[in-house]
User: Which sequence fits this backbone?
């Protein structure tokens, strides 16, 4: 399995971050033509996570679902003003003209004080779950109403992961539109990084756009490191870029009688003064 295939499976099969969200069927590895997928992705490969995620969705719609794409990234203009753009307009398997707005997001839970009214903020703390979903449902999905009267289905598709400090396993109340059945990870401040130290395990720092699937395919885009090398690289990147670091930990079971598929977990390390104001 290559990185593109791993990420495509995650895009389609991972749980939604939102409810209600777009409904669709899962896919299996056997449905993926890997050479075609690799060629398709390399033709329009972006270093940004969002466009990379969108291109995987475009491949899925065209080459697996075989739906008719009417528009992708089409600007909406009314009275000479650009109001935004529609992510996907397509005719689904039931013949319904469908408008999809899509997003991939990673948010960190703040257990103490909310930031600007939100407890779920992005690694870039100017972003929050509430801010994004309000725009998604109240602005972006409404764009097609201004220029198309034949759209039958309007849905949002948001995938991603929510990260919690160690020891926090439940939240008293989720924000509007957040699905309780979401993918979870951990975040720690740099000063608490030792809490994640496991000498027998491997660590990788994930680089964009390959933030999607939890299993880095064969270390293709992220080299495996032991704990000491990993900590050194975290410190180097934080000093250079002054921003959170996204990483994965591979659990190496030395006690198992038979080899099993590796288990990966993902986590953010943030500067001690994150999220700031």
Assistant:
């Amino acid at each position: 399995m290559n990185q593109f295939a791993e990420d495509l499976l995650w895009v389609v099969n991972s749980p939604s971050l939102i409810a209600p969200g777009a409904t669709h069927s899962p896919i299996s590895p056997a449905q993926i033509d890997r050479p075609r997928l690799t060629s398709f992705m390399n033709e329009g490969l972006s270093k940004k996570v969002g466009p990379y995620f969108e291109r995987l969705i475009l491949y899925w719609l065209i080459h697996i679902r075989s739906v008719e794409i009417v528009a992708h990234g089409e600007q909406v203009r009314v009275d000479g003003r650009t109001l935004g753009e529609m992510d996907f307009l397509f005719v689904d398997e039931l013949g319904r003209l469908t408008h999809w707005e899509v997003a991939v997001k990673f948010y960190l839970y703040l257990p103490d004080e909310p930031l600007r009214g939100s407890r779920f903020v992005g690694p870039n703390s100017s972003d929050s779950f509430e801010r994004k979903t309000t725009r998604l449902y109240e602005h972006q999905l409404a764009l097609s109403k201004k220029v198309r009267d034949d759209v039958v289905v309007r849905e949002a598709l948001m995938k991603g992961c929510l990260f919690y400090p160690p020891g926090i396993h439940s939240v008293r109340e989720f924000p509007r539109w957040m699905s309780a059945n979401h993918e979870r990870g951990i975040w720690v401040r740099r000063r608490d990084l030792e809490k994640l130290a496991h000498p027998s395990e491997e660590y990788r720092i994930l680089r964009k756009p390959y933030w999607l699937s939890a299993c880095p395919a064969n270390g293709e885009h992220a080299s495996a490191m032991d704990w000491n090398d990993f900590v050194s690289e975290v410190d180097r990147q934080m000093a250079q870029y002054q921003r959170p670091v996204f990483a994965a930990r591979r659990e190496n079971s030395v006690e198992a009688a038979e080899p099993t598929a590796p288990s990966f977990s993902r986590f953010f390390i943030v500067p001690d003064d994150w999220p700031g104001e």
User: Anything to note?
Assistant: The chain has one domain: 3-270. Helices lie at 3-13, 34-43, 49-64, 129-140, 143-147, 227-241. The longest strand covers residues 97-109. The radius of gyration is 20 Å.
